[in-house]
């Protein structure tokens, strides 16, 4: 089984995941735009187990459909490294794709909140777009 490690800018906070991502996607919601400081978030979801090293600050945000997401940030450099969804598949984790610093990382297969995507952002071929979050 393959192993991947992502870390923050200063290296203090790390997460190691096992296997290939279950899904890689983009989120264009306004909350993700503000959270990342970019025009979208690129995320990779992994099944557990995973291992975290270092100290993390947390921020909990409620999504449009009521789900609660717990985001983990490095308290030293501020990098948003990963998040979990409370009460759902507690063993899974979503990691910010850029924190792997791997240009060969698998491309996104879906794009959510595409209705809020900046007009100049082009999606990769084969990436399925949803106007909002298709999750129930």
UniProtKB/TrEMBL annotation:
Domain CENP-V/GFA: 4-114
Keyword Magnesium: no
UniProt GO molecular function: carbon-sulfur lyase activity; metal ion binding
Keyword field: Lyase, Metal-binding, Zinc
Record-linked InterPro entries: CENP-V/GFA, Mss4-like_sf
Record Gene3D superfamilies: glutathione-dependent formaldehyde- activating enzyme (gfa)
Pfam families documented for this protein: GFA
Coiled-coil stretches noted in the UniProt entry, renumbered to this chain: none
UniProt family annotation: Belongs to the Gfa family.
Name of the molecule in the record: GFA family protein
């Amino acid at each position: 089984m393959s192993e991947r490690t992502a870390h923050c800018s200063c290296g203090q906070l790390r997460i190691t995941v096992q296997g290939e991502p279950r899904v890689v996607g983009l989120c264009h919601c306004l909350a993700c735009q503000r959270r990342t400081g970019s025009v979208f978030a690129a995320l990779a979801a992994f099944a557990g187990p995973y291992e975290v090293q270092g100290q993390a600050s947390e921020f909990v945000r409620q999504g449009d459909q009521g789900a609660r997401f717990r985001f983990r940030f490095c308290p030293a450099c501020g990098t948003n490294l990963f998040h979990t969804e409370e009460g759902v598949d507690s063993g899974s984790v979503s990691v910010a794709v850029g924190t792997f610093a791997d240009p060969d990382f698998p491309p996104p297969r879906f794009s959510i909140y595409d209705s809020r995507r900046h007009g100049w952002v082009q999606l990769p071929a084969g990436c399925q777009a949803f106007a909002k979050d298709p999750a129930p």
